[in-house]
Amino acid sequence: MKEWMGKIRTLSLFSLMVLVLSACGKDNLTALMPKGYGAEESFKVIIISTLVMIVVFLIVMIIYVYVIMKFRQKKGEENKIPKQVEGSKTLEIVWTTIPILLLLIIAVPTIAVTYDLADESKKEDSININVTGSQFWWHFEYAEEQIQTSQDLYIPVGEKVYLNMLSSDVIHSFWVPALSGKMDVNPDNENTMYIEANEEGVYWGKCAEFCGDSHSLMDFKIVAVSQDEYDQWVEDMQNVDPEATPESTTAQEGKALFEQSCLSCHALDNTPSVGPNLSNFGDRSMVAGVLEHTKEELVGWILDPAEKKPGNGMLEAPYLNEDTIGEEEAEKIADYLMQLKPSEITPESAK
Q1: On the chain, which terminus has fewer CB atoms closer than 10 Å, C or N?
Q2: How many CB atoms lie within 10 A of CB 31?
């Protein structure tokens, strides 16, 4: 009895944990609350597939219960053998035809949506962004606008934006569940997809292909704003001045330290860089994609990136092998980076 009570308590605790954890998550990081055209179409396919599976499950369970009740062993009929239906052409046709029809019900809308989301007929007339996946961060290049940025992707609401994706190392997968399905990001061949947000807001993205130690920490976000705000953001980013002198003395010292130790990998303007572009670092909501956007977290990241995000490229930074960056220097660099805010077009939820 005690053994059964222990199992019941364990099951009850597990069920409670499942119930509580099912409510955990982040806004705009779910495919079940679509807010973009691609996600909406995918959601329809999910609903159709789920309904088909529910119908199949119910029919199978009904037949299962019926067979158990009808052909159960009865008193006085222990040796009775029910009528055998082996080799019945009618039954074989039925249970072959029904699965084919069910698969067609799922396959037709799935194929239609797949081709629809792969449509590139409007690519030349739309915004095109080159996306590069690296361990463990994302880089975005607005080729026509001549803008380089990392981690945060700004798009206008209600407009198709085409993403041309390549990897700089291993295979990644670009996924913003609230806006669209995922797409592999390969090192050898370029894949293209489009996203379209129906409403303004911040949509969180993930790498959906295991790519190394910090795969689960390879986060990014898409910020959808109005067309006017997007145009203003583009103008602000095009006019970024990396030579601008910070107001505070501490930030000025941090700028000098940054140029001495960090500028070999990072960029503060619209030029390519080995590491993430930091021109609008002050406008971001996360440090390294996963840490709270505070000076304390940034200092901790500069001093010990391995502890925050194992396997990341910062571990090869030259300054980490020298005695040039201590806590005092890291705080000055953090002061400088936190004031890099070239644009005021940042939704409150993105801050």
Answers
A1: N
A2: 17
Separation CA 119–CA 43 (nearest Å)? 18
Query: Tell me, what amino acid is at 8?
Result: I
CA 299, CA 328: separation in Å to the nearest integer?
A: 9
Q: Tell me the angle at which helices 249-261 and 327-338 cross, rounded to the nearest 10 degrees.
A: 100
Amino acid letter, residue 163? L
φ/ψ (deg, to 5) at 350: -95, -5
Q: What is the pLDDT of residues 253-310, one digit of tens each?
A: 999 999 888 888 898 988 888 889 999 999 888 898 889 999 999 999 998 888 888 8
SS3 121: coil
Distance CA 264, CA 218 (A): 23
The pLDDT, as a whole number, for residue 237 is: 93
> Are 179 and 41 a contacting pair, CB within 8 Å?
no
In the block, residue with structure tokens 């009929």: 77
Separation of alpha carbons 11 and 25, rounded Å: 24
End-to-end Cα, the chain, rounded Å: 55
Q: Per DSSP, what are the bridge partners of residue 138?
A: 133
Cβ atoms of 221 and 152 within 8 Å: the answer is yes
Listed in sequence order, the DSSP H helices in the chain are 2-21, 37-70, 89-117, 227-238, 249-261, 295-303, 305-308, 327-338
Residues of the chain with pLDDT under 70: 1-3, 21-25, 319-323, 346-351
Q: Residue 121's Cα: distance from chain center in Å?
A: 25
